[in-house]
Structures
1.
Amino acid sequence: MTNLPGVAAHEWSKHPFILRLDGYIDLSAAEKDSLRALIEAKIVVKRRRDLVVDGLEYRKLCFIAEGFAVRYKLLRNGKRQVLNVLLPGDVVGLPGSFLERAASSVIAVSDMTIHACAFDAYVQLCYRRPKFGLALSWLAVHEAAFYAEHLTDAGRRAPTERLARFLLEIHARLAMVARASEVEFELPFSQEVLGDALGLSVPHLNRTLAQLRSEGLLTLNKRRVQFTDMKGLQLLSQFQPLALARIPERDQSAEAALSS
Amino acid sequence: MTNLPGVAAHEWSKHPFILRLDGYIDLSAAEKDSLRALIEAKIVVKRRRDLVVDGLEYRKLCFIAEGFAVRYKLLRNGKRQVLNVLLPGDVVGLPGSFLERAASSVIAVSDMTIHACAFDAYVQLCYRRPKFGLALSWLAVHEAAFYAEHLTDAGRRAPTERLARFLLEIHARLAMVARASEVEFELPFSQEVLGDALGLSVPHLNRTLAQLRSEGLLTLNKRRVQFTDMKGLQLLSQFQPLALARIPERDQSAEAALSS
DNA sequence: CGAAATTTTGATCACGTTCAACTTCAGTGG
DNA sequence: CCACTGAAGTTGAACGTGATCAAAATTTCG
């Protein structure tokens, strides 16, 4: 790991996390700068490095600039559930920082570069600039909504459907931060990770994948996915990206009418 | 449904939602009052009434004073996934209000009384009093953390373990709002709901329940659960309630050091 | 280039679903 | 009060999906 202080302004405005925020909130340059000022370090993380460890205290927010990670929970019986995959623009330390001790682990599955800020510093920023508190809520709700979808997948959907939905979701998320073309993207996860994300064994995941391939819906090799029949995939998976509403602006007129 | 305006102060301070907030944030009487001022109506809802409908816009936060509901997602193939059960102190409209259109439905499973406030009004309160934005974040993170646990249950845990964990979780949540004794509580959900929550068929859920009973871990009749071997349940289920950290207070001294 | 990780394929088996019948319970009207 | 009705809970038998175990083929990486 290499630590360099802060972030340059021109770099920050194109940061995938800022790109994501732009998707649901209007931030002025000054506001973006006040967030940038919190960044304590740019960190380069090697593949397989632990970022968060289940059971330990963690009090940081890390914004992923580049690279991929996986949040997972290891069980007593040796099984593993991948809770979420973390892509550029995602935040490490959500929900870990809100708990006394992290309830899951995070590990890098590729080399990464991330920007870290102290959790307390972010909370104090929320007091000064309430908009960031709302942004945090939106982020957390987004997270919860994704989990809800995955829960439905694991509980009630067939394996082919699950896998198709998962790939479409990742594609949509990568497209949001300009890391995917119309029908193609890099998928840096092993089948073991995919299986643990979807609640399937590796052999069965492999067969499920083979089925999607044989139906001509997609190709996947060298960790590169290409959707060869987008319509067919959408039909099979019933996937539709969830539309997060934008955060309402402060209403000054309503302000005057109230004293509290 | 009967609509009466607002809430009385003495009623509000003992409202289960306020009880829950007290668990992770310090709110002054004035702050609690500013939230109370947002309540537009006290609503009495009959059993089986829809509160939120998948696909429709929903822009309210409803704080459950009494009664139980279920958030669920209905699939094309007729299957249903129960995403969460809503207890006194929980909020209806999270995450629904953050989305263009709700991505799940909510239905009352008992008669309920709830206090409704407009979502926009709450957001404006967050601008005036940033602490409420943080409270909202905490609430959302709490929700996300629960989903993460349920995802792990559905994906990787055995049925007996799932069921035991589910019951222990509900017990802990009810205890938090003073609706459960040490080892006993009301469980107003049919086995169909439990099955849909845990991703099991009704017959299998029933057999799983029978197994817990036969092992002397609990009794359940007339919708009343009694844990007869709490230690055994905890051992079997590896359950531990998740410890949400408290929301840090505003730090005035750090304030002065910064201009932004 | 060699070692390790990952992907693929096959055979067997167990768990949990499905379907069906029956029982018990709660609520309602005669 | 009891008979009736529909909902909820319980039990059984047969089936199928996906897990498990094992081994081979292939790729990645040191």
2.
Amino acid sequence: MPELPEIETIRQGLEERIVGLTIKEVVFNTPKMLLPDPESLISGIKGAKVIQVGRRAKMPLLFLDNGKILVFHLKLNGQLLVRKVSKTKDRFVRVSFVFDNGEELRFAEMRKFGWAKLLKNEAELEEVTARLGPEPFSKEFNFGYFQEKLSRSRRAIKIVLMDQKEFAGIGNIYATEALFYAGIDPRRPANSLSEDESDRLYQKVLWVLKQGLKYQGTTDRDLAYLQVSGEPGRFQEHLAVYGREGKPCLRCGEPIRKIKISGRGTYFCSQCQK
DNA sequence: CCTATCTCCTGTAGGC
DNA sequence: TGCCTACAGGAGATAG
């Protein structure tokens, strides 16, 4: 599922490919994915030029020259692909933005959980942003903040890591991996971690996110993440526990276990993670 | 305030 | 072989 490293990789791809292009036309087949509604979204962006591409948490942002901002959420398996306009139709493309250079940005998402939302101005973006925790690579995301958030929750540590209101951009894959490297059982109540454990986890969260960025994201078999170019990421080749149920732990050889925490698949080594 | 459960959706896997 | 059901999962809504 696209998390911070995947969305950041997509952001970089979009920056290279669509900044400076003007949106000529919008084609869609799933009205409920266009917010606030298809008509206002389309009338608000037609003829506008993309001047900048940003990201907040797991959301790519397209800043337009009319002051409006197009926000995407790819949810579980959304893709943003830039292609030459062609008749061949991709089964899961829900909306397509046609540019003035003969290319288009396709938003594909099988389950229809994702959406594209047009914000009128920066103030509306701030409303969205206000509900989110700090970005992991910002100065607000420091150890003091991290430990404070953990100490205030009795929820499972993995759930807290993935809570966008606490920390922005961390999802199932990177939370799972960070907990392995920190040697912490994902079921532990967040407030049960010692200062040393919190510090280890803090360091490992940042480290695994950097690794994900370095390898341009994780393309798991059916999670369908692709870069803007259509290339897969490569971090799946470096996962320690995620998706490795029954395979030997890379550190101790114990079979990796898969359990559910609040309905979410969680992989861990019962020997290395206490 | 806090936490757990339900909901949206559709392809895939597993059972018979 | 094919039909049927269960399941996965981000995050907002809802319930307790």
